[in-house]
Amino acid sequence: MNANTPPARIADxxxxxxxxxxxxxxxxxxxxxxxxxxxxxxxxxxxxxxSSNVQPWxxxxxxxxxxxxxxxxxTLVPSNFAWAHKAAGFVVxxxxxxxxxxxxxxxxxxxxxxxxxxxxxxxxQAHLKGxxxxxxxxxxxxxxxxxxxxxxNHLIHAVVAIGRQGDPATLPEALRARETPNGRLPLAETxxxxxx
Length: 196
Known about the structure:
Layout: H1 17-21, H2 35-46, E1 57-63, H3 67-73, H4 78-84, E2 89-96, E3 98-101, E4 104-107, H5 111-128, E5 132-136, H6 141-147, E6 154-163, H7 173-176, H8 187-190
Antiparallel strand pairs: 1-2, 2-6, 3-4, 5-6
């Protein structure tokens, strides 16, 4: 196993290997991705399940070298900027919190739920294409909102750094030990048949 090959995860029940292979490294190699690659990831997200087919997810994306990339990077907390600036691209995950019903904007309760489904599909498609996607909650929303011209009735959920995996030795020392896929709680702790 080399530095970029994580230890194998083991599922308790049979699942496709893509679910175990997808994880969120912080070390990116600094290589570029193409617009076509990014659009493939966004296309996968586009086909996520959606309550009443409202499709509330809204993604703002930028590739390294774009002014938008630098604007997004500038809103990250320092501990995230320290590694995420080497990503090939960013996707800001947002959702429209309302839905048009009979000419009026009404609250859309499942906006975050549906956007989470779209994010999961983006992350899995990234993995299938040899990229890794790491979602971050550490950003300054008050600065990011105007940087991406966030419309009214929209909410920012995360900034996703996407790129090819790099050498963990390039990370700040405090993050190197965390550069491995983490496990998951057993189903017995998170699922209940019939009731809690």
